[in-house]
Write a structure and sequence with these properties.
single chain, alpha+beta, D-amino Acid Aminotransferase, Chain A, domain 1, OB fold (Dihydrolipoamide Acetyltransferase, E2P), 2 domains, six-stranded antiparallel sheet, five-stranded mixed sheet, 7 helices, about 15% helix, globular
């Protein structure tokens, strides 16, 4: 079996019910912190490329398979913020407790929340934390404690803002911060009897050696890494931008908006015409184009019969209106997809294919694995991997499917 195929087979979809909520459902107000920057603060992002950049002046780090998280502290207040700007602290109390145990009362860190399982990571366990019941979260914090992987320092212990410093300076400051203030001792929450003995804060591996980065690409799957990040050492912290770092992923995946769905096919009538079934047949996937319109780019129907039954109550709250049929050539612009909509019958469509679809509010986001993208769409059905409640719909843009070549 080819090495690439082995890597592909290590990706397993998670439960279709795990954290099947929109980013908007997690939004809550943040406390006001007396810091140079405060939540919600857009983290720096990475642009997708086809291969690792070879030019000097790069720092390579593993691409962690978890929730991106900015951590803020002022005094006794510790706040966790997701990539989409949502508060995460209530879902990861053991991480909050561990960060409060650091021997510094002022800082802002950039990192990733992960849950370890054996030698790898467990994203499904991470998704299980996004749950409304506090009792369940507390139980899971004990059973499957999270780890916070730190890779950048944005405000140091003296309250000095570091976002205008280049990465090489910030990394040196982070190393000194870790040596002085980070601890691996058991931690407990304040004003409670709850103790989280295995909550861990640690620094992410990093290297300027290209050979090491290439080894991470080849062998990182066993550790739960889904690729490598390459950062410019001479770059400031580019909040909300993709200019300071690039990423290379082991497999091709895309975070897509669920803009609608089609029902499965039911039994044939006496006239040999197929009818709509009672379960979800396929999800209709979309990405935002450069004009801010949601374009239909493909579908996913890789669900078991049991998962199809579970999908119906998940999708029902997002239904935006009555079922639409674009077979008359009129694209649906006001509901579901605001750009290119799913097409109706064509000369390539099977005569018995049902083309009606149900538009959804563009809020639910999922990650899908695909094999080929051309002509503005997936050429084959994409495979559902997991929901992404930590990402807003508007963050799912077409550019993630058009990685650029890198300099040799």
């Amino acid at each position: 079996m080819a090495h690439a195929e082995r890597l592909q087979r290590r990706i397993r979809p998670v439960s279709v019910r795990s954290a099947a909520v929109s980013a908007e459902a997690l939004v809550e107000p943040f406390p006001r912190l007396n810091l140079p920057i405060h939540p919600p603060y857009p983290p720096a992002e990475a642009r997708a490329v086809k291969e690792l950049p070879h030019e000097p002046g790069r720092l390579y780090e593993p691409k962690w398979d978890g929730f991106r998280c900015l951590a803020f502290r002022k005094g006794d207040e510790v706040v966790l913020q997701s990539k989409a700007g949502q508060p995460l602290g209530r879902y990861f109390p053991e991480v909050v407790a561990a960060l409060r145990n650091l021997h510094a009362s002022t800082w802002v860190l950039d990192g990733e929340i992960v849950i370890r399982k054996g030698m790898g990571l467990d994203f499904d366990a991470l998704l299980q934390r996004i749950h409304p019941a506090a009792s369940r979260i507390q139980r899971l914090a004990q059973e499957t404690p999270a780890t916070y992987i730190v890779f950048d320092l944005l405000v140091d212990a003296s309250g000095r803002l570091l976002t205008t410093a280049v990465l090489s300076e910030r990394k040196l400051a982070l190393q000194k911060f870790a040596e002085r203030f980070m601890t691996a001792s058991p931690v407990s929450t304040r004003n409670t009897s709850q103790t989280y003995d295995r909550a861990v804060i640690e620094l992410s591996p990093a290297s300027t050696d290209l050979v090491t980065a290439q080894k991470w690409m080849q062998e990182g799957a066993t550790k739960g890494w889904d690729g490598v990040i390459a950062k410019r050492l001479d770059c400031e912290y580019t909040s909300g931008e993709r200019t300071g770092m690039v990423k290379v992923k082991r497999i091709r995946t895309a975070d897509c908006v669920i803009g609608g769905f089609r029902w499965g096919q039911g039994a044939k009538t006496k006239s040999d015409k197929k009818t709509l079934g009672k379960e979800v047949g396929s999800l209709l996937l979309g990405l935002y184009n450069s004009r801010g319109e949601l374009d239909h780019i493909g579908f996913s129907s890789s669900f078991t019969r049991e998962d199809r039954r579970k999908l119906k109550p998940i999708l029902k709250p997002f239904i935006a209106g009555p079922a639409q049929n674009s077979g008359d050539g009129v694209e649906v612009k006001t509901l579901g997809f605001s750009g290119k909509a799913p097409g109706g019958p064509s000369r390539w469509t099977r005569k018995d294919r049902i083309t009606e679809w149900v538009p959804l509010k563009p809020e639910l986001v999922g990650e899908f694995q695909y094999d080929h993208f051309s002509g503005g769409r997936f050429r084959h059905g994409a495979k559902f991997l997991r929901w992404r409640p930590d990402k807003k719909a508007e963050q799912c843009r077409m550019e993630q499917l058009r990685p650029r070549a890198t300099k040799k």
